[in-house]
Sequence to fold (570 residues):
Amino acid sequence: MNSTFSLPELRQVAQRADASVSRFTLATFWIALSWLIFGSVLGDLASFKMHLPDLLASPSWLTFGRIRPAHLNAMIYGWASNAMFGVALWLMARLVRTTARWVTSAWIGLVIWNLGVLAGVLGLLAGISDGMEWLEMNQYFADIPLLIGASFIGISVWRTLQARTVDHLYVSVWYVAASFLWFPFIFFIGNFVSPTGVENAAVNWFYAHNALGLWLTTINLGSIYYFIPKILGRSIYSYWLSLLGFWALAFFYSLNGMHHLIGGPLPSWMITTSIVASIMMVVPVLSVAVNHHMTIVGRFAALRYSPTLSFVVLGAMAYTGVSLQGAMQALVQVNRVTHFTQWTVGHAHMGVYSFVTFVLFGSMYYIVPRLTNREWPSALMIRWHFWLVLVGMFLYVFGLAIGGVAQGLSLNATARPFSESVLVTIPWLWVRSLAALLLTAGHGLFFYHFYLLVKRGQPVGFASVWHEIVPTVVNVRKRTLSSQKEVT
Amino acid sequence: MLAANLFLAGLVLSAGLFGLIVFFVALFKGLFDHPNEQANSIFDEHDRRFWRAWETANQQAERRNEFGIPLNPPPGEWGGAR
Fold:
């Protein structure tokens, strides 16, 4: 293995790495953005139906019970996972300074995965559901293809890691590589190890919570650890802390899922263990938060210059926020108020949207120009995209947090009628619908901007700029060497 | 019921246990050695020489001292439009 490259070699290595994943990663982004638009429309409709229940009530495939899981699955497996496949393979090739390997395997996996998601989501709209949270898609015609698809893509990621030309494994490599081991493992358990009765609920939440923590979270934390130092041009504040964060997450996260079943008919030791593990999550979360904050402190002005950094840093902040919120929710006293309320919906969106989706947007702003050799056409569109989704998300999360607490307090007041707990949420559900429209508008704009870049974008001339840089550096080196000679 | 509980407990613990095994293997293989080099492994040589408009004069001077004469970044280097 060779960990030292000359500058022209570094240029070639980066370009070769980008070229090797270019078509695959762009394909994943196209597919992911299509799912994002589709899932957003379903989400908007589901949101409006919460306070306008007669809206489009007659076609059975548009009823709330079908479009809500279709929205969730389209977003998790269609949007986020597809975009993560593209980011993960690009990141891995870049980090280990080699070309992506077995890309054909990744392509096969991508096709199988998306056929599975398509079949699963259409099945949900047709009323075919497994009835388990995050696992609603049919076990046979959706989940088996998903398992096979993720494994095929994982093989490509791992083969690329195996072919590394560097001695060191940066922390992002740990996150990305581990994700492709954890996901097939937890997905297999969640779908195909199904004890009956109450144990089934335990397995369900083992999967659902780990899908967030050991799949969506890990790849995006890997991205954050790459983009923040890379753009700021300074190393991560504490590399040891970043490793501590990864390993603490690896050890503690898998125990967390049972806190969704507080008050349920499960052994108390199981719930207690989960609560303790949830509180222990403060260790990796704070290690990540402190590390990111200390890396960027004094350089927050960079957010005005870099859309990637704006999205990624806000995503990192949301990760801290949602994780601490999750740890707090695991406390029985808090859970009594927030459980079974709109608060939980807001919490889930803070995780999957404010954290995961923001980081994915930031990653795409950075990666796509490098793959297409074209520049994003419009700074204005980027600004509109950013502000639409940021304002939308604030309204969404805070609206449902307030509405959820009001709902929970009302539910716990046994003297009051149940209907009051419904009525108290309606203004906040309207806020949520308004927020959802803003988010969808932002997604539509981003999709159009992506189309403009790929199909009509102006060549950025990265290659020519690179050629300008190289002689400059070489000249600087020559000057330095000659001055050293003069001194001696 | 006991068997089911043990099964579930084993299931939940297995992911963490697997992580523990990988951790010790990585430790003994030296994959956590040289943290500074690992932290810097994401940078290409030119990365930290790019002129960053948001940095203060002091920060830019530090960068110049440490990495040499600044280079103009290519358009879109920070992930955005011109």
